[in-house]
Amino acid sequence: MIIGGKNFDTANHTYIMGILNVTPDSFSDGGKFNGMDAAIAHAHQMVEEGVDIIDVGGESTRPGHIQITDEEEIARVTPIIEVLKKEFDVPVSIDTYKSHVAEAALQAGADLVNDIWGLKYDKKMASVIAKYQAACCLMHNREKAEYQDFLKDFMDDMKECVRLAKAAGIEDDKIILDPGVGFGKTYEMNLEIIDKMEILNELGYPVLLGTSRKSVIGLTLDLPVTQREEGTMVTTVYGVQKGCAFVRVHDVEKNKRAIQMTKTIMRGHEV
To answer: Does residue 89 lie within any of the structural domains?
Structure first.
């Protein structure tokens, strides 16, 4: 697939989406990069470490987060996106579920819309993405972790995301699916969907795995958010083995090395 003029061989590679939160209340980096200079410096570090896409978020989506206005979110993200597109030759993603924010970000140069509600929160989102012929990442989410049959219901939810995309005219080669670890799921469900993420392959779209520093790792290892890197890298390795095309992470360099090592072990060997 093509994102921001770059060709992504999603059938054979696992690419890194690096997280750039420009929020004062993000769960894992706590507003560390919400000033322009700090954000650009962090982006520069990620580029040096080999990031493939930079994902800019202007509103925290951590549990219990405070929703901000569209205007405030736009004011946070658009200046950063403009500078990123000018300074670096790397595709930029906007992490938002609001169509007004998505449109402003796309006008500022964003190449991909990463929607944690999979087009279901804002009914105008799909048409905005189609209008700009942007790529999109559609994440699984629910208000409550209540299911009759978790994996079947999960797949039905994901099929509905795809249906909404196609109904709006979003092309197949613009769609990425995200199983939504940490959203609308219990602890056990999060583990289950990481373990069974390959079920998404039957829908025929590239898969993005986003587990970086999340509570499923913290609860398993009984570790605070600042000490979840090894747990994150294990899920990255698992994602590579399951055929994930993208992993969304905070620490680019370490996860990039983990991917390279895993891919090397998995390839055919001359013995």
So the answer is: yes
